[in-house]
Write a structure and sequence with these properties.
Strand content: 15-25%
Number of strands: 16
Largest sheet: 8 strands, mixed
CATH architecture of the largest domain: 3-Layer(aba) Sandwich
Order of helices and strands: HHEEHHEHEHEEEEEHEHHEHEEEHEE
Distance between the termini: 33 Å
CATH class of the largest domain: Alpha Beta
CATH topology of the largest domain: Rossmann fold
Radius of gyration: 18 Å
Number of helices: 11
Helix content: 25-40%
CATH superfamily of the largest domain: Vaccinia Virus protein VP39
Shape: globular
Strand order of the largest sheet: 5-4-3-10-11-14-12-13
């Protein structure tokens, strides 16, 4: 019951559903009932001409079915910032929602990293269904501070994370590389969601972080890093050494607001440098239809 109440609050209070709560509730019921009556993958028509292959229980994707953009501010920032000449890194890509937005809507090149084989297969399927093979490259590996292998949980959906070898959860061993060694591409924007392992990834990414072509990061900042010995403030301090400052984004006003790390309502924080360049990008981007809104 608690999960149902949380889901209702999320859907009905979501920015894209304001003023359209009845329609949002209807769509939620339609999905919940339909996906149980006819279980399995559904091809969902998403933003513009893009699609998502979604199944019941896939928390990393179903929020987009209910709301248009699950992580409204962060996804809208990506849509407003990226241009076709850019490269985007999707680190902890899960089933590829951000990848589809970056390459399918913005036309940018994407390099996506997802270590869990079953999830990686869904990522590849979402790339194929959108015919993005020429723009989006998927890598079935993890990222860390050194090359090797690590154990990762395999049955926690979007909450899969690096675990110790003695962990009792269902887990698999996956290859891990340093970001600096994994690709020669340099991104303009990085999204990283690795359930607390962010500092380890950053430790292997000094070359990418120091490259002036990189302007923005969308970083999940919460207490999950404590399992690896890090605090949220460690991310702030580390990225600050490369000239990045934390911001929140208000998509409707296209306004960037300086913030304290970790205060974003959805757990993500934007880290930006070359602020005037970023502001110019988001202010001049085309509008995108998200349910009843043009964002």
């Amino acid at each position: 019951m608690k999960n149902i109440i949380q889901l209702l609050r999320f859907v009905l209070n979501h920015d894209a559903n304001k003023g359209k709560r009845f329609a949002a509730f209807r769509d939620l019921l339609k999905w919940q009932i339909g996906s149980r009556l006819v279980p399995g993958d559904v091809v969902f028509n998403w933003l513009e001409e893009t699609k998502l292959i979604v199944a019941n229980g896939e928390a990393g994707l179903t929020g987009n079915v209910y709301t248009g953009l699950h992580e409204f501010a962060d996804m809208a920032f990506l849509l407003h910032f990226l241009r076709p000449e850019d490269t985007f890194f999707d680190i902890g890509a899960n089933r590829g929602a951000y990848t589809v937005l970056a390459s399918g809507v913005c036309g940018a090149k994407t390099v996506a990293f997802e270590p869990v084989p079953g999830t990686f297969a869904k990522l590849e399927a979402n790339i194929r269904v959108n015919q993005l093979e020429k723009l989006a490259t998927a890598r079935n590996s993890g990222l860390g501070d050194k090359e090797g292998e690590l154990w990762v949980s395999a049955s926690l959906d979007s909450a899969n994370h690096i675990v110790p070898e003695h962990s009792k959860v269902e887990k698999i061993r996956v290859p891990v590389r340093r970001l600096d060694d994994a690709t020669t591409e340099i991104p303009a924007l990085i999204k990283i969601d690795v359930e607390g392992f962010e500092m380890n990834v950053f430790s292997g990414a000094a070359g990418v972080l120091s490259n002036s072509m990189l302007k923005c990061l969308i970083v999940e900042v919460n207490d999950a890093g404590k399992r690896y010995g890090f605090q949220a403030t460690d991310i702030l301090d580390h990225l600050g050494k490369f000239g990045f400052d934390p911001y929140l984004y208000h998509p409707i006003e296209r306004r960037l607001e300086p913030t304290t790390v970790g205060l974003s309502p959805n757990g993500n924080t934007l880290f930006l440098r070359d602020l005037e360049h970023v502001r110019s990008r988001v202010e001049t981007a085309k509008k995108v239809a998200v349910r009843s809104l043009h964002v």
